[in-house]
Amino acid sequence: MDVGYYAATCPDAAATVRQAMELQFYNDRTIAPAIIRMLFHDCFVRGCDASVMIVPTAGRSSERVAIPNQTLRGFNIVNRVKKVLESACPGAVSCADTLALMARDSVALLGGAAYDVPLGRRDGLQSNPWEVDLPAPFARLDDALGAFAARGFSAEETVVLFGAHTVGATRCSHFRYRLAHPDGTMDEALRRDMAEACGLAGGDLPPGDDPTAFLDQDTPFAIDNACYGQMIGNRSLLQLDQEAATHPATAGHVAYYAASPDAFVRRFSEAMAKLAAVGVLEGDAGEVRKVCSAYNK
């Protein structure tokens, strides 16, 4: 892969993606965290090959139906950007590269550090729901560390990528058990606030309703180190994040980034660049899809 991969075939690809993301962001800031999350879900399964974007058909399932992927957002935005690229440069820019560029621009729009994205990914030819094995929000930290290590990430890099929880939101179902059965690891004021927001304090939520809450209650649309201070102060919603503050393999890194805002912003972009290079298809492998939601015919 190379930053200038499309210099001859689609020289304005990166600028086109950036312009589209800027427009979308100013209409809806929540799309940037959603795109970052989509990249993670894509790259953790079969590598960064846009397999998560395939829409299932009557005869063929896909990663989209797996439970962790059912709450992903932004597929329509990726398809819209790809359509613009396809109009300008037919058959040139892959969906995997489109998503990687959109994630890079999302980081920048949220105040993160700019970083280069080597290009040349190809789109995958398989998308299987049974292969989706992402660390759950309520997983043990040791299991999550193992999953990240299997994809080449150290404990320090894993803590840095947990920093993505400085933006975006999560559903109450991912942490409601911590509200109903307090164990002393969540700040009591936060627990009471979330119990009310999630319908555990006598609220009248419709049956089956699953509200969302910002992961970072202070700066939910800024890539900063606030989430690490929240981990240390027992103000993390997710058990996985909270455990990172005290686990022997991660506590030191959490403390370091809680005290080092500039270092975190720099390292987060470096870790995102590494994430976007996990298990990529190159050369003649895979294909360059015309439409991100379906294999070429």
From TrEMBL:
GO molecular function: heme binding; lactoperoxidase activity; metal ion binding
Substrates-to-products reaction catalysed: 2 a phenolic donor + H2O2 = 2 a phenolic radical donor + 2 H2O
S-S bonds: 10-89, 43-48, 95-292, 172-198
Chain ranges passing through the membrane: none
Active site, per annotation: 41
Domain of life: Eukaryota
Main subcellular location: secreted
Cofactor(s) needed: heme b; Ca(2+)
Name assigned to this protein: Peroxidase
Protein's organism: Aegilops tauschii subsp. strangulata
